[in-house]
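Internal tracking record. Fields below are filled automatically when a chain is submitted to the structure queue. Please do not edit lines marked as system-generated. If the sequence contains nonstandard residues, flag them in the REMARKS field before resubmitting.
Queue: standard
Priority: normal
Entity type: single polypeptide chain
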Amino acid sequence: MVMPSRSIIAAAAGTIVTAIAAGITAGDATASEGASPTTGSHEGWQRSTVEDRSYPGATKILAEQGISLKHGDGKILLAGCGSATDLAEVHSRSKGRFCFSVAGPTGYLALDLPDTYSVKGNSYRLQVSLTAQGRTTTSTVEKNTWTPVGEGANTAPSVLVEIRTA
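SYSTEM-GENERATED OUTPUT FOLLOWS
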C-alpha cells in the first residue's frame, strides 16, 4: 500500500480549510440557493468571513438616543446608566448622559457625541479623543475619576470621537 506524502496531505487539508472558511461545501455547487446546477456558479452571493466591527443597532440607537456609535472591538458597549455598577460615564451638554460597560484592560469604540464636557472612568483607565475646530486632542481619564474635557476643560465645544482603555 502506498501512503500519500505529508505535503500532499497538508495541501489537501489547506484546500479544505480554505473552502470551509469561504463557506463552500460540496453541496453548494449544485443544491444551494442561487447556484446553477450545471455550472456551480455563485454569482450574486455575498459571503464574507471578515467582521467589519460595525456597532450593532447603531441606526436605532442614533434615532432613539442621539449618539452615533460607529465601530469597535466589542469590549466597550453602551449601557443603561442604572443597569450595572462600574460603568464609565460621559456627559454631553446637548445629548445628555451616557454610560458604557468596559470589559477588560483593552477596548476600543469609535463614536460621535457632540458637546461632550465630562468623562468618568470606571475600574479601567481610559483614553478619550475629542475633536474641536478641526483639531483632535486626547485626554487620559483615570480610574473612577471625573475628568473635564471639551467645554468642561475651557476649550471649544468638542465631539467625543473615540474611547479606549489604556
